[in-house]
Automatic annotation (TrEMBL):
InterPro entries in UniProt: BNR_rpt (IPR002860), WD40/YVTN_repeat-like_dom_sf (IPR015943), Xyloglucanase_GH74 (IPR052025)
GO BP terms: xyloglucan metabolic process
Origin superkingdom: Bacteria
Keywords of this entry: Hydrolase
Protein name listed in UniProt: Glycosyl hydrolase
Coiled-coil intervals: none
Molecular function GO terms recorded: hydrolase activity
Any Pfam family matching the protein: BNR_6
Organism in which the protein naturally occurs: Sphaerimonospora thailandensis
Length: 358
């Protein structure tokens, strides 16, 4: 078995490989000096395809792909993700790249300003999903601290007509007709930053990240600006599960690939502090769908730390559980978080982490 770890940073993409359960070997940087805020490892075909959302500075953002595990990279002749002229919008960032588990050639892209794009050629070119762009609530959408970003895409694993997205600070939306129409789905998600009496709006929640269990797609976990939630009906209703955490503020959330009741979060001191609780790196795990939580610090630094973990800088999958920090540290666990090993250090600010068995 070979595991591949893709680490997008503020200054380039780093790939790390592990063969036969051995240590990860970090390769030389790709796209040096260029930010890589999104990355995907598409394993649906015999030869995995790497997809990277990159930022060229004043040349603008784009998406590149590699079919030889990062040795060479290609880009479409025309800008692959671009807003049609009639929208009057311009692309700021590609926040998310998500291959569809139910449609072989489809890849979804989440963008800023909050928009969803669809590719039908394996992630080479993309078209705007007009149904979400034209949603009647859009004129009232407001950006979060990171911008008006669509950062989460959850295509249903077997039914391509069902797809959900989350954007900050727009909330959680879902579609049952392949993106032609959309409905807000934020019932019971409290927005404490709004005035009393208006803290449970139809939309406008500051959702930081949502994770879906691949074998139980109705089960969703959501990290809000203040609060951790679970849904058992694809976002129809949400239940607050953050009571057992030292802080219910954070950015990432990840679910175990085989155990739908096992979920991981990374609590931070609330709001503007945004440093690890107790100034210690500690991943928290629940094995009972959020009823109880336990901290998992073994193998992580025991000296004070002040760096956070961003919304896409944690993942869980067949290869293990991984996270990267804003001071360039990357850690992984092959035993569900019981123990951690440092994989890389002194990297640039880690923006996203993705892992796959290839």
């Amino acid at each position: 078995m070979e595991a591949l770890l893709a680490i997008g940073t503020r200054k380039g993409l780093f790939l790390a490989r592990s063969v036969g359960g051995g240590p990860f070997e970090v390769e030389s940087v790709r796209f040096s000096t260029i930010a890589v805020p999104s990355v995907a490892v598409d394993t649906r075909t015999e030869t995995p395809r790497l997809l990277a959302g990159i930022e060229y500075g004043h040349f603008g953002p784009g998406v590149m792909w590699s079919d030889d595990l990062g040795k060479t990279w290609e880009e479409a002749e025309a800008p692959p993700v671009a807003f049609p002229e009639h929208t009057g919008a311009s692309l700021t960032r590609v926040w998310q790249l998500q291959p569809s588990p139910s449609e072989p050639d489809v890849v979804w892209a989440g963008a800023e300003p909050a928009a969803l794009f669809r590719s039908e050629d394996g992630g080479i070119t993309y078209s705007l999903v007009e149904g979400l762009w034209d949603h009647p609530t859009r004129p009232r959408w407001q950006p979060g601290g990171g911008g008006l970003c669509l950062h989460t895409i959850l295509p249903h694993p077997v039914d391509p007509a069902r797809i959900a997205i989350a954007a900050s600070a727009v909330g959680f939306f879902r579609s049952f007709d392949a993106g032609a129409s959309w409905e807000p789905a934020n019932k019971n998600i409290r927005a404490p930053f709004l005035p009393e009496g208006a803290q449970y709006p139809e939309f406008g929640q500051c959702v930081h990240k949502v994770a879906q269990h691949p074998a139980r797609p109705e089960r969703l976990y959501l990290q809000h600006h203040f609060g951790v939630y679970r849904s058992d009906d694809f976002g129809g209703t949400w239940t607050d599960i953050g009571a057992g955490l030292p802080s219910d503020f954070g950015f990432p959330v990840a679910v175990h690939p085989e155990r739908p009741d096992t979920v991981y979060v990374f609590p931070l001191h609330a709001d503007m502090d945004r440093t690890p609780v107790g100034h210690e790196y500690t991943v928290y795990r629940s094995d009972d769908a959020g009823a109880t939580w336990q901290g998992l610090p073994v193998g992580l630094p025991n000296e004070p730390v002040y760096s956070s973990v961003l919304r896409d800088a944690m993942c869980a999958g067949e290869a293990g559980v991984f996270f990267g920090t804003r001071d360039g540290e990357v850690y992984g666990s092959r035993d569900g978080g019981e123990t951690w090993t440092r994989i890389a250090g002194h990297l640039p600010d880690v923006l996203c982490v993705r892992a796959a068995v290839i």
